Every structure is written in structure tokens, then in C-alpha cells.
Amino acid sequence: MKIAVDAMGGDYAPEEVVIGAINAVKEYKLDVVLVGDETKIRKVLQDQHVKESERLSIAHASEVIEMGEHPAQAIRKKKDASIVVATRLARDGKCDAVVAPGSTGAAVAAALLGLGRIKGIERPCIATPIPSKRGITVLLDSGANSNSKPKHMVEAAIMGSHYAKYILGIEKPQIGLLNIGEEATKGNELCQQTYPLLEKLKTISFYGNVEGRDIPNGTVDVVVCDGFVGNVILKFGEGLGMFIYQLVRDAIKRSGFIAKLGAMAIYPALKSLKKQLDFTEYGGAPLLGVNGSFIICHGSSKAKAIKNAIRVAGELVEQDVTGHIRTSIEEEEVEQYDSES
Amino acid sequence: MKIAVDAMGGDYAPEEVVIGAINAVKEYKLDVVLVGDETKIRKVLQDQHVKESERLSIAHASEVIEMGEHPAQAIRKKKDASIVVATRLARDGKCDAVVAPGSTGAAVAAALLGLGRIKGIERPCIATPIPSKRGITVLLDSGANSNSKPKHMVEAAIMGSHYAKYILGIEKPQIGLLNIGEEATKGNELCQQTYPLLEKLKTISFYGNVEGRDIPNGTVDVVVCDGFVGNVILKFGEGLGMFIYQLVRDAIKRSGFIAKLGAMAIYPALKSLKKQLDFTEYGGAPLLGVNGSFIICHGSSKAKAIKNAIRVAGELVEQDVTGHIRTSIEEEEVEQYDSES
């Protein structure tokens, strides 16, 4: 098993990406190809006293997609960009999966162009694991498509179900449709049209509508929504968590000596909480629906997040999630759905 | 100034609603008419040792809209429902504003049917004040319309600006369009079409696109979005706040004696934080765009929330927010916008 990692992606590239890869190779039964500027990557390896090897090699790529660039245009223009080269390694069978930290737009464009879509899937989407009372609740699409049609919601439901089953190990994942009320007739046109389609599916277990609060409450295993909504929710959640954290800190700062001592005493408890809320523990967000295993990591990913993403990339391959999605999409005859309605 | 309050609305009616009204009359220069089952309302007044008076009177209504009922149908059928009677008092000029705890759907239906819309406004919307680093950020629409067109987003931007100016006291409110990226061309069709329209407006200060994290970060004073998105975000935020609170509590419970002592020491700090995060401090969410002042309160509103909502209802009237909206809508010639595009 060999994972191609875009070593130039994200805010802490290449240092943190390379360190994450070093640790992944140590801990898991898989090899990593670090893709990017070989001088820079080699420098980090040397600093870490690690030698290139069969298990941890470098594939040189001379270009990098910058955060400000138009994703699809940049991918087309920069044929030697690290993310493009990494994806090509997977396409050509030289690697089994790709891990891409950094710009979501560039990663999605590289995967769509480089790997193509599973037959019958019109819109691959991003599945993000979110901490919840259930442990993890998967939100998808969390940002690949911002004008979803009912057909795309059906695709997302099927893909999310397989991800939850084979990666999270949930025997019969419950799938909810994100809406503003429980009744089948509630919500916007997209939801009203999607609901009866999800009810008809044979290969997933459709729970019905869920509301915003059901995501942290963990009412279901998988929450399906349009990528615009999913992206806004994810970023809102990140911001709100940070805001609450700062409020707690400021409130303690404003308090007296005793409160500061108290804060020190509960610090271990808060630290375990922080770990529980830390999205990076879960190892990136797979782009489901492309012909291959492809994990997108947050731009702020550090070594631990990269290591976990590499592990999940390996699991996607091992469990053949792409294969299971392919079979389900055929069985449900998703191609028949009108993507314009 | 006289405010009609639906005393039968919400999870804690009539007790908490009546107590909220009693306190409002004590604290503010306004009168309240409690609308609902007069026997039940009188009972609460007696329990509180408060007499009916010119300033705190009862208007009997024999029916109540239950949570399970279809809002618009129920409003049409139950002509003597408390929310319908309260709205009628405002329409007939016997009261200056309405405060409606409980079902949002029923409140919106009662207001639309009873008060009608401001000329030029096609979709009244709900403006919800959210705690943020800026103090308060207003999110609208937070649930009245779930299939917004660009015209409705323009209406929301204008209405939100006046609410922020006259109720929150912000001289030149910054208005942001909720999107998934900063660039003008980002996002779904609704956002792409809305952006240039907001840029053209003369009576508001358009900041540009904002993302989910900008809501808690308080990047702008007013965030404009479709009601489906707004509703999902609000409920997600409520659920996430509760989830984090429980995680903290559980983490402390699992810790030893010292941590429990520590938790006691920081309790005052956490309590002030809870107050800061408490939506009810801000006094309900106005339904803007109807011909009158109309405040919707959360179904779980207790006396303090009701009292604050009555205060804000008074401010809406005093500041003539409806009048300012009417003037702006005319000046911007919003009626010319195609609501189908």
C-alpha cells in the first residue's frame, strides 16, 4: 500500500506534512511518497534524521498551487504542481491513494480532472467527520458543490453510508436529510424533492429529516446537505468553538486568584475535551465519488492531522470504499435520476 | 405605548409569559395587554399578587395554536386563537406591537395575514441577534423563507441595516453576504446573483461576502442569508453550545476532587460566560417587513426573555423601524427587482 502525499499543501508545508508522513510510516503498514520540491522535502527529512527509503520516498514536483489562484485554472495550467503530480501517481496505479492538505478547491479540481468520477456519480462530494454525542457524525457534502440537485443529494446519501459503514465501522448507518423541520413536506425545494428519493433507496437506511441541532446531538450517523450549507455550517462551528474557548479564557483571566487556581485544576479535563472536539483527530475529509481514494486535509493541518489522514487513506483503499460505492450506485440505478429537477 | 403579548405561546405559557409582562410593566414605560385564556391568565396574576390595571390588562382569546398544527391553516381556522387576537389588536391600532412566544410558523402566518407586508417587501424575514466578538451580530433571514430569491436578499439587507442602526445603535452597520468564500464570484447561484445587487444599494453599507466563521467573529454587524441556511445555522449553534457545555461538565465529573474544587472556583466566570452566550438576553427576534412591530420569541422563553422581548418591541415602535424600512425600500426602488431571477 502506497499513499501519495502533497508535501507542499497547507499552511505548515512542507515541515509538518513530512513529519506526519514519517510518523505514519512508523506506525502503520503502508508506504508514503512525498510529492513536491525535493530539495525542501529532503531538508526536512535530514532535520528529522530520517533517510529516504523504499517506504518513504520523494517524487519531485516543481510547481505549487497558491491559495489565491483559481483552482480549476491553476490545475490545468500547472501540470507539474505537487497536487497534480500526486493525483497522477494514483491515476497511473503507482500509488493507491492521495492525501491533499491545503486548498479544498484545488484538491477537488485535481481529483476530478486526474481521477475522474465513478460511473453514475455526477457530483463527488466531501465527507467531514464531526464530533458529536454519537462519537462522530458525518456531514456531507461539506463544500464540493454549492448548487446541488436532488440527484446529487441521493449520491451523497449513498456515498456517506458506505463511508460510515467501512471507515467508521457502523453496521447499518442511519442517514438524515438536513432540513428545518421533521415533516417530509418541510424545507426548501431541494429538500422537498430529495426526501421521497431517499425514501426509495434500497441500499441505505434513511432516518428522515434532521435539524441543525441533530448534528452535535448525533441523532444520525450521516447528515446529507448541499455543499453550500455544509461549508457554512463547518466554518460557523469552527468559529463558534474558538469564540467560546476565548470567552472561557477571558472570563477566567478577569477573575481572581482562586479562579485561576481552579482553572489550573480543571486543565486536564479541558484538555481531554479539546481533544474530543479536535476535528484533526479524525484524519481529514475524503472526497467521495472519484475513481480512487482521495483525502482532503484542512489547510491548518499539523503533523498529527496528516498522519491520521494517511491512515484513513489506507483504510479507504483496504476497505474498497470506492468499489462499494460503485456497486450501490449501479444497484440503485442512480443514473436514471434527472439531474435538472 | 401598548404591547400585545400572546400569553398562551411557548413551552412555559402562561406562567412565565405573564411574569415577564409583570416585570416589563414595572421596569419600562409601556403597557401590556395579555392575550389568551382569561381565567388562566388571571390565576397567574393572582398567584403573583398583581392586579389587572390600565397598564396590565387582559384580552380574552378562547383558542390556542398547538405546536403540531399546520401554521397557515390553523391561523385561518382558529379566528379566536391568542396569536390571531393579539395581531388583530395591533392591526386595529389598539396596540402598537405584538410579542409572540412559541411556534415561529404560526407567528409568521399570523403576522403576514393580520398585518400584511410593507409595500415593496415581498418576503418579511426574521432577524436574530447572535452573540459575537462584536457584541451582537444580526443574522437574517433566520427562518421565515426557505427559497429566497436575490430580491428577498436585498430586502433582508435593507431591513437588517435599519434594525442594527435603530435597535442596536450602530451608526453605519456593515452588511455581509453569507457565502463560502470572499470573492464576488464565489458561492451558489443565489449568492452570485445577490452580490451585485447589494453593491448597488445606496442606503446600506455593503461589506462583501463573509463566511460561517465571520458570524461568531463579528466581522460585520449584519449577515444576510437565505432562511433555510439561517435556520440550520441557528439550531446547529444552539446544539453545539449545549454539546460543548455538557462535555465540559462531564470532563469535570470524571476528574478528581481538585478539579471539582477548581470548577467551583471558576463557576462565577462560567456563569458570566453563559449570560454572554444567552440569546434570550437580547429579547427575541423581530419579524421585519410586516406593517407593524412584531417580535417572535423562542418556544423555550422564560420570564426574562419575555420581558426583554417586550422592551425591544417598544423600541421598534419608538424608533419607527417599520417607517425607516418603508422609506428605504421606496428609495431603492426594490419593487423593480425581478423576484423570479
UniProtKB/TrEMBL annotation, chains A, B:
What EC number(s) does this enzyme carry?
2.3.1.274
One Pfam match: FA_synthesis
Task: Output one GO MF annotation.
Answer: acyltransferase activity
Q: What class of enzyme is it?
A: transferase
Superkingdom is Bacteria
Translocase is among the record's keywords: no
Alphabetical list of InterPro entries matching this protein = FA_synthesis, Phospholipid_synth_PlsX-like
Q: Kindly state which reaction or reactions the protein catalyses.
A: a fatty acyl-[ACP] + phosphate = an acyl phosphate + holo-[ACP]
Q: Where in the cell is it found?
A: Cytoplasm
Main location group: cytoplasm
Q: According to its UniProt record, in which pathway does this protein act? A: Lipid metabolism; phospholipid metabolism
Keywords per UniProt:
Acyltransferase, Cytoplasm, Lipid biosynthesis, Lipid metabolism, Phospholipid biosynthesis, Phospholipid metabolism, Transferase
How does this polypeptide assemble, per the annotation?
Homodimer. Probably interacts with PlsY.
Q: Which family does it belong to?
A: Belongs to the PlsX family.
Query: What is this protein for, i.e. what is its function?
Result: Catalyzes the reversible formation of acyl-phosphate (acyl-PO(4)) from acyl-[acyl-carrier-protein] (acyl-ACP). This enzyme utilizes acyl-ACP as fatty acyl donor, but not acyl-CoA.
This protein is called what?
Phosphate acyltransferase
What is the phylogenetic placement of the source species in the record? Answer: Bacteria, Bacillati, Bacillota, Negativicutes, Veillonellales
